[in-house]
Amino acid sequence: MLKKRELQDCQALYELMVHPDVFPFVRHKAYSYEEFLFITKQTIEAEERGELISRTILDEWGNPIGTINLFDIEDGAGFLGTWLGKPYHGKGYNQLAKDAFFNELFYERSINTIFMRIRKVNVRSTKAAEKLPYVTLANETRKPLWEAINQGEDIYNLYEISKDNYTLYAMRQQKVDDEQQLKEA
């Protein structure tokens, strides 16, 4: 489902990224394949320095279909950035990728808080975030950070995922899964 970023995936990812329904919401925009290759190389190097964590999202056949990233890592916290190619929207890949990524971040890395900044005009992403039981709107509880991300033209909502909230969700989900298996046995 996820793998470390590799230059060999750039052609497929670039073609998916430039779709007009995807491109506006990509953090590191590339206006040519060569630029995307360069940005990917920089991303790999930044991960080696501990500045970010970036993974390629794969479909069930191992094809690259998007990326999921934790940017601006500082004091055990960072900002989530994710995008999927248009043909993969609405098919459940985003949730599977987030679950795998959050498990890595919270249980294999030293991450305790994941922030999401979502443009107020991005209704699709806002609805998706607010459906998740472990996500908290943090505009008021993290007001200095919310004000800092809203210095530019775009206006964002700030969402927070704490390790504790995600762990409670994962434990409840495991209990539901276990009960379902018992019923089916």
Automatic annotation (TrEMBL):
Domain N-acetyltransferase: 5-132
Keyword Transferase recorded: yes
Molecular-function annotations in GO: acyltransferase activity, transferring groups other than amino-acyl groups
Domain of life: Bacteria
Keywords: Transferase
Name of the protein: RimJ/RimL family protein N-acetyltransferase
Native species: Anoxybacillus mongoliensis
